[in-house]
Amino acid sequence: MTVVIVYPEIEAFGGVERVLLGLCRELEDLGLEPKIISYFDHIGLHRHAERPLNHLVLNPRQGMWAKSSALKQALSDASGRTLMFGLQSAVHAELAKLEDFSVWVPDTPSLQAVPSASWLRRLSGQARKALFFNIAGRGLRRADGVVTNAVYLGDELRRLYRVDPKIIYLGVPSPARAPKTRETETPASRSLLSVSRLEPNKRIDWLIRAFAGLQARNGGRPVVLDIAGDGGERTSLESLCDSLGVAGSVRFHGFVSDEELETL
User: Fold this and answer.
1) pLDDT in tens, 188-220
2) What predicted TM-score, i.e. pTM, was given to this entire model?
3) Which H or E run contains 57?
4) Distances 65 to 4, 62, 176 between C-alpha atoms, Å
């Protein structure tokens, strides 16, 4: 059986892209055939894959209506179960009046950047966000199922969209099944690790400000923040570290391989 995975636009290689490739491997190991459909692929996703990918890149005209129409045509030519990644795909599913699909929501909806489509730019910021959320909600309620990967994301989806998502943890046991551990002594030092693209919606600036507060309250014990990942915010984040006086304790590693990540 084919499993169609709709991932609208691939702009960088980060956590969600790792999930996408990991999901394809798992499906193949189960004897299923994953097929990825995207509007655009700006990075050459196949270069990051360990196995050959069945990846259809549509390259449609710009605009939500053109994209949703191209997606509807591509799905009409495909058979099998369909899993859509992200709120944008839920919006397009509603615009195209798709059926028989599920949606995975990996990011916090309230921090979602609203697309700047031409027909949305005529509206104020609040009206644009309200309309986007309204269409996304209808798309999510149209879906056969909604999946997310954290309890707080599930709570927000219920509050904003009146859906009841299934929580599936990625790569770790759920808290209910995780072994209970207890710190028996205070460590001599603390090391914190962030793994993320350095983009505005990731809110790494919040993390750095919180780290600066932690360092101020840490009683002189060494504390270090390692930041793995790269992106357009790196220069401004490094400047923020300078202004907060924590540049010597925050280490920017850039994009790292899986092996380097294990070491960190």
Assistant:
1) 578 899 998 898 878 899 999 999 998 888 777
2) 0.76
3) strand 55-57
4) 21, 8, 43
